[in-house]
Amino acid sequence: MRRATALVVAAGLLAITLTGCSSDPNANCDAALKPGAASALISATGKVGSKPTVTFPTPIDTTTSQRSTLVEGSGEQVIKGQMVELQYSFFDGTTKQSLGASTYEANSPQLVAIGQVPIPALNDGLLCSTVGSRLAIAMAPKDTATESASQLPNSVVAVVDVVKAFLPKANGAPQPSVSGFPTVVLAPTGQPGITVPGSSAPKKVQAETLKAGSGETVKKDSTAVLHYTAVGWENKNVALSTWTSGTPDVVPVNTGASVVQQGSALPQAMLKQLVGKKVGSQIGVVTPADGSTPALVWVVDILGVR
Q1: CB neighbours of residue 113 within 10 Å
Q2: What is the tally of structural domains in the chain?
């Protein structure tokens, strides 16, 4: 049962740790799993988001991973690099033994980034699904191996609910630029390029709204899902960026402690400028030098709040 436990551990990880993969929002859905004879044998009853009653004949034994959609959600299609909230149940396809499940509590869904999930079959099973869907995934043993655990001996049955998705990039209305601020240009993916002016860095925090979103409002006690890039005012170099990995960050606004990059934290001087702003907004912030930290130019996309 040691290998089965390995899958439970892998599935239970907050699968938004950086793995060096990059996001391509323009990628097509060729990598997404297709329906097959094995996934067609899986059924589940119950409301999407609540714990299902899962039935399937045994053994389910497949050499290719497959996905069937049990309930087609009416929400947006999710893409690589996008953060989603899930509820899930895993079973051994031969013994029907449970290999782990999420809590199915409304306030504690599993948060993952498409393309960053440790289990390959789950990654491809989620790709290009729609929010509100319930998926039946039959995982081939070869597609259950992770970086830290070998593949399982039997096929795995998974029933996964795609509960919510966060924006892949800021989608708010463009706003007039503020004189004297750094210039920002955006790639099609949403990744910003920042040109810093030749003037001296400001001595106080400054902020501007580059895009005005219309979603939920960021509060002091919110946990925000963010994409950001920070560039040094003096050396013009990128100091840090979530766009490098393609994985957004998840940050409690009142602490700044990154959920994705354990042990690191974002400055309160920057985060305070996000409070009161709406999801979909893109905010430019200049934080002055503070001790050993140089002056930085931030471009922050507010993708969602939890």
Answers
A1: 29
A2: 2
> Is residue 197 located within the same domain as residue 152?
no
The residue segments making up the domain with residue 36 are: 2-165
User: pLDDT, tens digit, for every residue of 193-202?
Assistant: 999 999 999 9
pLDDT of residue 80 exceeding 80: yes
Q: From CA 296, how far away is CA 16, in angstroms rounded?
A: 25
- Whichever domain contains 273, its CATH number is 3.10.50.40
Q: For the chain, what is the mean pLDDT?
A: 90
Task: Give Cβ neighbours of residue 66 (< 8 Å, ≥ 6 apart).
Answer: 33, 34, 35, 36, 37, 38, 39, 137, 138
pLDDT of residue 117: 87
Looking at the structure, do residues 270 and 203 belong to the same domain, yes or no? Answer: yes
Write out pLDDT tens, residues 233-265.
999 999 999 999 888 999 999 999 988 877 789
Check: CB of residue 203 under 8 Å from CB of residue 279: no
Q: Are 148 and 257 contained in the same domain?
A: no
Give yes or no for a cis peptide into 59 (omega within 30° of 0): yes
Q: 3-class DSSP state for residue 174?
A: strand
Q: How many CA atoms lie within 13 A of 71 on its CB side?
A: 19
Helix (H, G, I), strand (E, B) or coil at 105: coil
Q: At residue 207, what are phi and psi to the nearest 5 degrees?
A: -145, 150
Tracing tokens 């029933």 back to the chain, one arrives at: 159
For the record, the structure tokens of 161 come out as 């609910």
pLDDT at 25: 42
Single-letter residue type at 76: E
Based on the domain organization, do 22 and 144 belong to the same domain? yes
